[in-house]
Structures are given as structure tokens and as C-alpha cells.
Specification:
homodimer; alpha/beta; Peroxisomal Thiolase, Chain A, domain 1; five-stranded mixed sheet; four-stranded mixed sheet; 31% helix; globular
Chain lengths: 331, 331
């Protein structure tokens, strides 16, 4: 059995840019009316106009701090958890800190964690294990993603699926016993390493030698292969995750699945032995916001009063690489 | 005082690509003979020819596993800690795993940590705090960096300073008491957020709208501003790090500073109250290898028999963002 960690969510906040309806996208790219909702399950999503990743992240953090009645100077670490970024250098968390109004009022350290769509989930586990009530009392995790810039105009599936947005959570060391971190875990299946891929822009297809080309520099997803792998590995992951965990699965009250795609979500519903009503979702109004999907949905679930203090909650999803990951905590 | 963690380094390995002498670079770019060694303190470094980040990382991991007499299937997590990458997606650690000969023999999870030059240092702290002897018994950290592709041919300082290479370490949960993790810490000073910068290639200067331009897409370093900030913040960081740490500074036997630059290293020697002979260095034969500098030097120090089991070792450095970070452990 795993050690429990005295960790409590004391605040959260989100930032969402302008709404873009599926009708607008369908019209712009000559798609049949209703295509997006039918195939992607998305009727609207948010896309940036003026916003940067750092800007959205900072606004989400400030809302979370306000809610928790804390300041940046109360924080002992800022984790930026995501796959997209403003600049190749410095790391995104430093850029996020610099976008905060109080950027110079604290020398709190900043670090980036990237497990693509599962970045928030991984950061949640790491933060929980860093929090010790001494050096680390409060940690901010923020996921701010801009997916809209890297989409291929010829690929209708991804074009209609992805959205932008940000969410921030403050995790605190709290020994009251009301809230606890129970378990986190991640498995990576190398068979699916390039089922989702952006080829160009790193060292392998360096900019200097490879001018912009939509196919090379856009997001590519082999949807069918991905779904087959998720179906195949899902049950194995669930067994691995819960074995010796000490967690009674039927005690889990709320499941926040990554909003990968309409079919991706349905696979999770088939793989996990939970009643339909425990699964939350927002894909129809937000699309897939990469690493920001899970924390945006978690924030909305809490705000709607659908996750009670002391209830068990599971965050779970798949990510590029190909990985499956989850955390379970007592909210 | 911080809790000590029962963590032991049980193996390490490095991979270095072909040697490039300063004479070769001076000749190629029309620099006066001897310029590189005089101004950068680098007489030779390694630059990739055919190697990718993932290739170098996998070879370093395999050497570390061999040394430790372990297999990939004994590992509970693979952390890729660095600033440069093969592809924008998936995350680098998934690419690294896929380069391992035994990639399909284990579904071990993989995650990326990026605090630029301090990535290995941050990953070391995180790994130490994850290791619990139950879910996490062994964690691999690998830093593999290719700096040579992003250099500006007009900037002689960076052109002669940077090198490529990789190093991997295996950290194990070990309660024998011989080895321990004592403390890690990071402080980020937003004043220096863009003192080191690669502007182009992220969402702010998206490649679609900003074709390759050497100034936009190369590494830019404001050396003087950076050194001034390091001098100013160094003593504050040292006070913050050691205060209430329970670490006796004079018990530290070996210091592994990031090989930032000739002057950068000298600032650390002035800021930290250690005898000159405790500082290790390899900048003259390796240059600055970004996040790989510290673990390559640590590996070489161990291999040379200059760090004894049970002795205290400090890893310390600066990174883009601007951050200062360190860990202290009993080897």
C-alpha cells in the first residue's frame, strides 16, 4: 500500500480565451454544417486572439491565489505543466512567473513538467510528494495550452477537436486529515511513441534546415492506432494502478477523464468500472485543451459543487508518447 | 531542518559525440587563433554528427544500467531532464525510451523536467522525494543536450562555448544509511527572465508566421547582465539554501558547479565558501553542455575516484529564467 500524503487543494482558477463555434470553423474551412459536432463531439471551444501561454497561465494563477487568499510570496514552487510554450528558452514556468503582476515580490522557484496531455496529473503527484510542511507548504500548478496554432488546416478531425485555455491549482500541506493524496502513476507504451507527433521544430528537423511546411510542423494524430492501443492497454493500466493501492475503487465518487476525443472518452468509460454519472466532461464546449483539459474540468466540477470535501476523485487520461496516467486524491 | 531521504546513486553513464577543437571552429568562422580558449575557456568540446538527443540519452542510460547491473524493467520511472529536444511532440522522455534497445520490455513511465541548465538538479530532488521503496525503488534521470544546432554564427562567445553530450544516473531507494539525499532548492529571479533567450519557435513567434532567421531562432545571451545578476543573487541564494538545512557547509567535500562559462564558474567560486580544490570542472574539454554539464562532470568525478562513498557533494548552478539551484547529497 502507498503512503498517504496530507495534501489539500485550497484554490483554483481558470482562464478561457474567446469562444469559437464549430459553425465558424466549418464555414472557414468548407466543412459540411454539423461535421464538427458529429465527428469530434465539439460544438464550441476557445481559441486565443491576443493571449500567450504565459498570459493565460498568470491570470489563472492570480484567480487561484485570490480564491485561496494567498499571495505569490506564500508559494514555495510554481510548476508549469504542459506541452506548448511561448519560447524554446527560457522554460515556460519562468515566462509564466514573469507574467504575474507580483513577479518581483517573490523569488519562488519555477519548474516545467511535461507529460503532454497528462502534465497536470504528473505535476499533481510530484507536488503532493514534495509538500512536507517545512520547505514546501504551498505549490502552484498551472497548465496553459495553445493548441490552435499547431493545427493542420487539411486535417478536419484535429482542426475541430482542439481548444485553448488555462487552469491553476494551489496544493497545500494540510494535516487536518480531511484531504489526502492517495496515489499517482504513469505507464508509457513505446509502441505508440509516434501515434501523435509534431515532427518539425526540434533538433531532428531543425528550423534552419526545414522551412515551414504544414505537414511537418503541425500536429499529426493516428487516431485509429491510438484508440486500438488505449483499448488494449487500458485494463492492464487499471489493474497495475489499483493493485496494492489500498484504494477501494467503489469509493471513488468523481472521475475527471482527459477530454482526448469523443471516442477516447468512451474508451475510458468502458475500461473503468465506474457508473456513468461519475464521469465529468466538457469536450462539447471546450474541445481537447491538451494538459489544461483535466484541470479546467476539475475546477468546473468543484465550482459546480459536484465534488464534495473528503470525497475521492480520480484524474485519468492518455498522452502522447504513448502513456496512460492517473492520480487519486481525497478532495 | 529538512527530512533526509534514503537515496543512493547506484550507476551512471555518459555519451559524448565527436570532439571538435577550438582551432577548427576558429578556422571555420574566421576567428583569431586562440580566441576560444582565451575568452570562453574552452579548448575542445563535443558536437553531434549523426546523433539525436534521444540516441545519446539511450546510450547513456544503457551504460548506467550496465554499471548498476540493472535492466529497464527494474526502473520505476525515466526522467528526461533538459532543455533541448528531438521533436516538439511527444515529450522527450518518450522519445528516449523508444531509443532504448529494451523499449518494449517494460512499460515504465517517462516524464520530462525542464529547468534549462538546472534540469538535472531539479530532477535529482524530485526523484529523491519520489523514491519510497514501494512504488518507486529505482529512477533513471538522463540529460542529453544538443546545443550546437541553435548557435548564432555571428556570436563568437556562444559559438565557442557550447558542447553536446549526455549523462544518465540511476537513483535507488537505499536504507543502508551510507548514502542520503539532504536538500534541494531552486530560486527564480524574474529580473533575468530574458537574459538568455531563444525567441523563435514557440507560440509567441510561431514558425508559420516567422520563417527561419538566425537572430530569432538562435540562442541569445546577455552575458554581462547575467553575470551581474548572478553576483547579486548568489549570496542570497546560499543563505536561503543552507538556513535551517542542518547541513554543515564545511562537511561538503565536492562541489559540481554548472559549467556555464569561464566567468560564471569564477562567480560561483567567489560566492561559495569552499576551498578551491573542492570545485570540479570540465569546461576546457566539454564546454557548456546545458543540463548535461553537471551530470557529465559528476560521472567523471566519481569515475576518477574523487568522490568517496559517504562524502557530501553539492551540485549547484544557474539557469535561464533566471534561476539558481542546488542539491546536497551524501554519495
Amino acid at each position: 500500500m502507498n503512503g498517504k500524503h496530507p495534501v489539500k487543494i485550497i484554490g483554483s482558477g481558470i482562464y478561457l480565451p474567446a469562444v469559437v463555434s464549430s459553425a465558424t470553423i466549418e464555414e472557414k474551412f468548407g466543412l459540411p454544417k454539423g461535421w464538427a459536432e458529429k465527428y469530434s463531439g465539439v460544438s464550441s471551444r476557445h481559441h486565443v486572439t491576443f493571449e500567450s501561454n504565459g498570459f493565460m497561465a498568470a491570470r489563472a494563477i492570480e484567480k487561484a491565489l485570490n480564491f485561496a487568499e494567498k499571495r505569490v510570496s506564500d508559494m514555495d514552487l510554481i510548476i508549469s505543466a504542459g506541452a506548448t510554450f511561448d519560447f524554446p528558452l527560457p522554460n515556460q514556468s519562468s515566462v509564466v512567473k514573469n507574467e504575474l503582476e507580483d513577479r518581483l515580490l517573490s523569488d519562488v522557484g519555477t519548474i516545467d513538467i511535461d507529460t503532454t496531455c497528462l502534465s497536470f496529473v504528473s505535476a499533481f503527484e510530484f507536488a503532493a510528494k514534495l509538500l512536507d510542511g517545512r520547505q514546501y507548504k504551498n505549490i502552484v500548478i498551472v497548465s496553459a495550452e495553445i493548441a490552435s496554432k499547431g493545427l493542420n488546416s487539411k486535417n478536419f478531425e484535429t482542426l475541430t477537436l482542439f481548444g485553448d485555455g488555462a487552469a491553476a491549482f494551489i496544493l497545500s500541506f494540510d494535516e487536518s486529515g480531511e484531504s489526502q493524496f492517495l496515489k499517482g502513476g504513469l505507464r508509457t507504451y513505446a509502441e505508440g511513441v509516434f501515434h501523435t507527433h509534431i515532427k518539425g521544430g526540434g533538433n531532428q528537423y531543425f528550423f534552419k534546415d526545414h522551412p515551414y511546411d504544414e505537414d511537418l510542423h503541425s500536429f499529426n494524430m493516428q487516431g485509429k492506432k491510438l484508440l486500438r492501443l488505449a483499448k488494449q492497454k487500458g485494463p492492464e493500466f487499471v489493474n497495475w494502478f489499483f493493485k496494492d493501492s489500498g484504494i477501494q475503487m467503489d469509493e471513488i465518487k468523481v472521475v475527471i477523464p482527459h477530454q482526448a476525443s469523443k471516442v477516447g472518452i468512451s474508451i475510458f468509460k468502458h475500461t473503468l468500472p465506474f457508473e456513468e454519472e461519475k464521469f465529468k466532461g466538457n469536450i462539447s464546449t471546450h474541445g481537447n485543451c491538451i494538459a489544461a483539459s483535466i484541470p479546467i474540468l476539475l475546477h468546473q466540477t468543484i465550482e459546480a459543487g459536484e465534488l464534495e470535501r473528503g470525497a475521492l476523485c480520480m484524474l485519468v487520461g492518455t498522452s502522447a508518447g504513448f502513456s496512460i496516467g492517473a492520480v487519486v486524491f481525497k478532495y
